[in-house]
Amino acid sequence: MSVAGLKKQFHKATQKVSEKVGGAEGTKLDDDFKEMEKKVDITSRAVLDIMTKTTEYLQPNPASRARLSMISTMSKIRGQEKGPGYPQAESVLGDAMLKFGRELGDESSFGVALIDAGEAIRELGEVKDALDMEVKQNFIDPLQNLHDKDLKEIQVPQTSHTLPNTVLVPEGENSYVKGAWGRSQDL
């Protein structure tokens, strides 16, 4: 620490002691300063939270998706129609921007920008959620139904005498596999 910094710290400590011991009144902060301090605190929290949510948006966490998938499966087992949906990262980011934009207010340029960007990103999340539901209903569910019901009805059950990895081979001079005709040989 420099000499000037040490001198400044010593002066602050002396002032604090004289306020406590001597009953001297501390410096009063005016309302404008308190309002600016509040806005700086909100801005600091906003920047930190938005950075975190933006990172989650750019690099989704597979563990949270797995947890929500498990919760959805458990709700199906319990007989509930639909479990909680996966919150889109866009919607979470947009909600955070809207929250802090409203806290900062319309008189703040940063607050107005957060509100505008938050609304746009939130709409993007809603569109993505609608797309996910549409793909599930119109693509994944019909394919699952085809696999689970229709294809199982069409499939011919395998008999015990024909195994999947065997072929019938004739016996002869040019045959690479020795065995009787009609007898199955493992590949």
Automatic annotation (TrEMBL):
Any single Gene Ontology cellular-component annotation = glutamatergic synapse
Instruction: Give the domain of life.
Output: Eukaryota
Instruction: List residues of the BAR domain.
Output: 5-183
What processes does the entry annotate via GO biological process terms?
Answer: synaptic vesicle uncoating
Region feature Disordered, mapped onto this chain = 1-29
What the entry lists under InterPro entries is as follows: AH/BAR_dom_sf, BAR_dom, Endophilin_SH3RF
The family annotation for this protein states: Belongs to the endophilin family.
Protein name (Swiss-Prot/TrEMBL): BAR domain-containing protein
Origin species? Denticeps clupeoides (denticle herring)
Q: What is the lineage of its organism?
A: Eukaryota, Metazoa, Chordata, Craniata, Vertebrata
